[in-house]
Design a protein that fits this description.
Chain lengths: 250, 96
């Protein structure tokens, strides 16, 4: 069970870490200054959540730290979801990715408040306040883009169409999910789908965005250690400094 | 959107804690009040600066700059007695 718990913490930590890295890449590139600061703040919140989960994973593993897990792990040992690995194609993709993840996080962390594992419920309690705000912000942007101009509606529709298939992984159970559910640490991923669909579909419909069809596109996902073509490049950038200068401090 | 179309200018006021006055902290650009409120929260309160926010459209603020400064302010220069500083303040009175 301990290995599955570590695997689960890595999934939560790595997903927030990689999403936060994607947001960090966007720093200074948002259309207006206010939005740049706001989205970067979201990234920093996610980095904090990642640190909490990776600290816990490191403690359970023993003889390692969150920094080592972040900077000295191979691609195949990461457990982040495919959705967060997707690139910052444009503002609509960034907000669509964020909205799909924020709504998932809100439902998941609310369920994790009841986890039998006190560290996980504690981290979730702290994270939920941040996540509620993230979702408020990203749903607001979905509506603005959806109901804005023809171009903004086209772009957000396009982003939702392209990213939708990656939501399949969010609700697919693997052996770690089964173990977490059996031990009352976390709900089955598949059990989150109904609630998630309700809030996401409502927001999309209110924003005049069509809901794409569900696709089960892969047998192995990020949470199984099989990644998109993007993750290697993300890690290369994220890890190169500590690998080149292992003793560097600031 | 043209590159200089950043929306309307808003002025932001923050209350440090309940009961204290709202103080001007800066400004921001946003397209409407919902967006202005979110941006104000992200720009001005995330280091625990306060727990109350007012936002006002800058164009709705009436400023004294437009009025003749001399006639407006100078006559009060030599009238220090208009401040209640000639009274003894009893012990035990706080916040004055």
């Amino acid at each position: 069970m301990k290995n599955e718990l570590i695997d689960y913490c890595l999934r939560l930590g790595d997903s927030s870490l990689i999403l936060s890295h994607r947001i960090a890449e966007y720093c200074s590139k948002a259309p207006i200054l206010e939005e740049d600061l706001a989205i970067t703040n979201v990234g920093l919140d996610l980095l904090g959540q990642a640190e909490n989960f990776l600290n816990y994973a490191a403690k359970l593993k023993g003889n390692t730290t969150a920094d080592i897990l972040t900077f000295k792990r191979r691609e195949g040992d990461f457990r982040c979801l495919h959705l967060v690995q997707n690139p910052n194609t444009d503002f609509a993709y960034i907000l669509a990715r964020q909205f799909l993840m924020d709504s998932y996080h809100q439902i998941l962390f609310n369920k994790l408040l009841n986890s039998k594992d006190e560290t996980i419920s504690g981290i979730s309690k702290k994270a939920i306040k941040e996540v509620n705000y993230h979702l408020d912000r990203s749903s607001d942007w979905i509506k603005r883009l959806g109901l804005g101009t023809t171009e903004s509606n086209d772009r957000i529709q396009n982003a939702i169409n392209d990213l939708w298939m990656y939501t399949d992984e969010l609700f697919t159970d693997n052996s770690t999910d089964l173990s977490m559910d059996k031990n009352k640490i976390a709900p089955l991923s598949s059990s989150l789908k109904k609630e998630w669909s309700e809030i996401v579909i409502k927001t999309l419909k209110d924003s005049e965005i069509e809901v794409p069809k569900d696709v089960h596109y892969s047998l192995k996902y990020g949470k199984d250690g099989f990644h998109t073509e993007y993750l290697g490049y993300i890690l290369a950038e994220m890890q190169h400094l500590p690998l080149l200068y292992p003793d560097a401090t600031w | 959107m043209s590159s200089d179309d950043q929306g309307i200018l808003w002025e932001v006021f923050i209350q440090v804690k309940a009961g204290r006055p709202y103080k001007h902290v800066g400004s921001l650009h946003a397209y409407d009040k919902e967006m202005a409120m979110k941006s104000a929260r992200d720009l001005y309160t995330r280091r625990n600066e306060g727990n109350g926010i007012w936002i006002v459209k800058a164009e709705d603020i009436v400023s004294s700059e437009a009025i003749d400064g001399e006639a407006f302010f100078d006559p009060s220069n030599d009238k220090v007695y208009r401040h209640p500083t000639f009274y003894k303040i009893p012990d035990g009175i706080k916040h004055i």
